[in-house]
Amino acid sequence: MAETDENLPSEELFDAEFLASLDALRIWARMVPAGGRHAEQRSKARGSGVEFTDVRPYSPGDDFRAIDWALFQRLDKFFLRLFLEDEDLPVHFLLDSSRSMAVVGEGQVGPPRMKSALQSVAALAYILLEQGDRVSVQPFADQPGPELPGTSGSRSFRRLLAWLAQLRFGGGTGLVDMLQRFAQRRGRRGLAVIVSDFLDPAGPAAVLGALGKLPHALLLVRIKQPGEEQPQLAGELRLVDCEQESEVTVTVDKSFLQRYREAYMRYDADLRSFASKRRGHYVEIRSDQAVPRQLAQLFRSGALQL
């Protein structure tokens, strides 16, 4: 993955206001009814948890504290009580670190998408780490970058912030390729959080097809710049792809902008519909607005509980 100087200082990315807002976001996350959480992805293992599930005959060496004494009084035999315990939920962040996330396009305004993308990962990871889930982050551009392997525990959050702050953005977009690679990984099913502008040279159909092959529950976080739905452009223009450096000359008029907007909104609707059919979630994050406040809408509506 080609590197550039496209990154932001840690104090700008994760300032005091942003960090303070995470506690409020965590409160909203805790208020969602349990029926909305990704509980179906959490692995249930027999152990020493709190949910009683079964008994088995006692064997020498077993923990005598788990003996079912009521059953012993009835049957005059020793049985061990078995419980279900939650294992941590593996959460995989796929973070688009291509150059398009770090630049502001013609006819668009506001800060680049990269800041909102990094803050989205940080905010969601904060909630997940606080509740004991296991978080990994895989950045990608035209190729996968160095991964932050699975980490858990609230003490890991500062290390995650430092790792995100040093991440550089650059290179082309390989969203479809990354999704295909990720679908082939072995491991326990969990939650895949894709943070991207969801723009790939292969086109919307290829992106949706690759998403459909993922075995995980999905949270699609689409990072947007204000103005990209309806760019303020007119006349004959030479457009340059910031990643591929290819050029195309177009005449922008009302008809052109209408077709562009229709295609743009159709892709939005397709992503949202796809997530809904997969019992996943889709959220749009605008780069000119506070990220935690936008993510809070997921929890306020009761749509998502992590």
Textual characterization of the structure:
With 306 residues, this protein is of the alpha/beta class. It has two domains: 10-39 and 88-227 and 275-300, von Willebrand factor, type A domain (Rossmann fold); 45-86, no CATH class. It is 34% helix and 23% strand. The protein is built from nine helices and eleven strands. The strands form three sheets. A six-stranded mixed sheet has the order 6-5-4-7-8-11. Strands 1-3-2 form a three-stranded antiparallel sheet. Strands 9-10 form a two-stranded antiparallel ribbon. Helix 2 packs parallel to helix 9, helix 4 packs antiparallel against helix 5 (157-165) and helix 6 packs parallel to helix 7. The radius of gyration is 23 Å and the shape is elongated.
From the helix content, strand content and strand pairing, which structural class follows? alpha/beta
Q: Which consecutive residue ranges, at least 5 long each, have pLDDT under 50?
A: 1-5, 33-37, 43-52
Which architecture of the largest domain per CATH?
A: 3-Layer(aba) Sandwich
Mean pLDDT: 83
How many domain regions? Answer: 2
